[in-house]
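Q: Hi! First time doing this. I have a protein sequence and I read that you can turn it into a structure. Is that right? Here it is:
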Amino acid sequence: MNSADLQKQINNHEAWLKATSDGPAAAAGAPLSLEGEILRDVRLCGMHLSLAHLSGSKLIDCRFQKCNFFRSEIIRATLENCQFIGCDLSKSDLTNAIATNCDFTDSNFTRADLTGANLAGTVLTNCIFDWSWLVETDLRNCDLTGIRLENARLSKTKMYNNRKGLHDVERSTPRA
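A: Yes, that's right. Below is the predicted 3D structure, encoded as structure tokens:
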């Protein structure tokens, strides 16, 4: 997909988000659907991309800074050499996503579903995974410095680590 087509879809998505917040009678734009698309060298900052459909897509050498992916579908997506710096991925579905050589520093995954995702070797510094599903998620050799996992579901999660950070995982206690 070229950058002009992507920008057109993002503009339609923004119009759709505004229309849906104005009520069901307002019909404008369309949700961002990049399912199965290949995106290369995309650079976005501060974009509101919530409810986007990125399932099955392949993102290569992309950089997203402070973008909002709230409740987005990123199922079975492949992310290669991408950066998601300070992004909101809360309540997003990343089931079976594969991230290779990626950086998610300061991103929020609260209540996200990462079941079966492979994030091995990624940078997850200062990420929030509160109430997230990390069932059978591969977090081996990730930089886990400063992450939060309050009430996260960690069933069969692979977390052994020969990189720094595992000892720095914030240990939260449930609030009374």
